[in-house]
Amino acid sequence: MSLNKVYINNTSSFLPNEAVSNDEMETYLGMINNNPSKSRGIVLRNNGIKQRYYALTKAGKPTHSNAEMTALAVRALFNNDASRLKDIPLLSCGTSSPDQMMPSHGVMTHGWLPEIEAAEVVSPSGVCCAGMHAFKYAYLAIKAADVTEAIATGSERFSASLVSTVFEEEAHKLSDLKEDPYIGFEKEFLRWMLSDGAAAFLMSDKPNETGISLAVDWIDGISYANELDACMYMGCEKQADGSLKSYLDFTQEELISKSVLSIKQDVKLLSKNIVLQGGRKLKEIFDKRQLDINEVDYFLPHMSSDFFRSKIFNELIVKGIGIPYEKWFFNLATVGNVGASSVYLMVDELFHSGKLKKGNKILLLVPESSRFSYMYAMLTVC
Predict the structure, then answer these.
(1) How high is the mean pLDDT of the chain?
(2) Is the pLDDT of residue 189 over 90?
(3) pTM for the predicted model, two decimal places
(4) What distances in angstroms separate CA 36 from CA 39, 41, 67, 297, one per listed residue?
(5) Do 207 and 296 sit in the same domain of this protein?
(6) CB under 8 Å to 243, separation ≥6 — which residues?
(7) What CATH number should be reported for the domain holding residue 65?
(8) Confidence (pLDDT) at 280
């Protein structure tokens, strides 16, 4: 049985509202216990993000759901021509911040796109790799000739869990105990790192007749959860032995007073492992597939922070697969860290930039710190 080739024939994105500068962040997210953040300036100096987007008003009220933003990105694939949606047989939607636990993010997105008639819908979960898992599901479905066309998406609405009201009860409790009313760095750190948005790929078993397409050469992934503890987590608390205590095992009062539903990150574990493990697998892929790093024209690494740029650069040199900075393409500074959507947003900007030439090879790298998972892909412009 011969396998189909798979192509990305169009890309699109949706970023809600106006860009939010560093100085405006607390206007949207609010101050915890009426105190300006102690860590905001430090985090922003390191992460290199200059602006980002929130699905919020300046009063901190929501303007879009995750599913709605995803649907708007999908519509943009067709310049809002709803008639083109009718025959899409597969919708594959990845996110780490669904609007609810049930129903799934994918079917809620489908609900915003009624022009897509009865179709298969999948909803990979996780964190940053969720968008790549959605991409791979669509890729494999087309490759196996199960469908001839599919839409894959990556999206996030992190802002709902970053607003000050999520942390107010914990801050008040600390004040009542005469302790420092500032919440722990592992919780506040991510308030200045994450933002909202959605993006989409239109995929097919045939390339565009005019213009460019991106042939998907391969997509590989790995998890090191067998070796490493959880690093980024939500809806739980990390215990002294490294295990996670589920939100289901807290009282209703504890869920609020301990900010259990906030996103947290073990920064020390992150710094020690995220780059090292990502380089380890990429080296294995290049050796296994007998790839030549010199043939890569564009390198699109998803980075949560510019802090990691030089570390990734140096680690790849150590592994013998160094990529000069002039081949790097990323938009962290202008769109922020949008988790599962970030790699889609990079591909979308590059796809429509006018820079790509037929034959160019594009290497994607997506790390996920939740428990150290990674996804990689190679695309060829055709």
Answers:
(1) 94
(2) no
(3) 0.95
(4) 9, 10, 32, 44
(5) no
(6) none
(7) 3.40.47.10
(8) 96
